[in-house]
Amino acid sequence: MTPPDLGGEQAHHRALEALYAAAPINTLFESRLEIAEPGVARIHFEIEPRHYHAGGAAHGTSYFKMLDDAAFYAANSLVTDRFLLTTAFNLLFTRPLRAGPVTAEGRWISGQRRVVVADARLIDASGEEAARGTGTFMRSRIALSSLPGYADEQ
């Protein structure tokens, strides 16, 4: 697969950002995707008390959602024709997250054909890492151009 030209690359990244914003799950998790360059994605997220488990810190679903999304979009930023699917994700919690801004930083590690590997880390408001994860993603049969959000930006 040949990477798109700069204009096409930027259009692909903006369309992925629109696809992210259009996903119904994001009505539950207020967040914003930013793809600054190929293979790198950031999810900006605000942890609120509504995300807490009974112990008073963010539930693991918040960690997983942000890490998976950041790694996924870092990987899909390099795949211009197909939607990727998460096939595995390993997660390491390093500290509790409480209310405040969080950034998930995703980076491509390897692959671009059938299987892609990417990792991500969560950075809290104080600049400390709260979690990290590595995901494996595979190309689906779903054309990106067929998806609401993505198609609207092309």
Automatic annotation (TrEMBL):
Pfam families documented for this protein: 4HBT
InterPro entries, A to Z: HotDog_dom_sf, PAAI_dom, Thioestr_dom
Annotated ranges, domain Thioesterase: 55-130
Alphabetical keyword list: Hydrolase
Listed GO MF terms: acyl-CoA hydrolase activity
Name of the protein in question: PaaI family thioesterase
Organism: Sphingomonas baiyangensis
Organism taxonomic ancestry: Bacteria, Pseudomonadati, Pseudomonadota, Alphaproteobacteria, Sphingomonadales
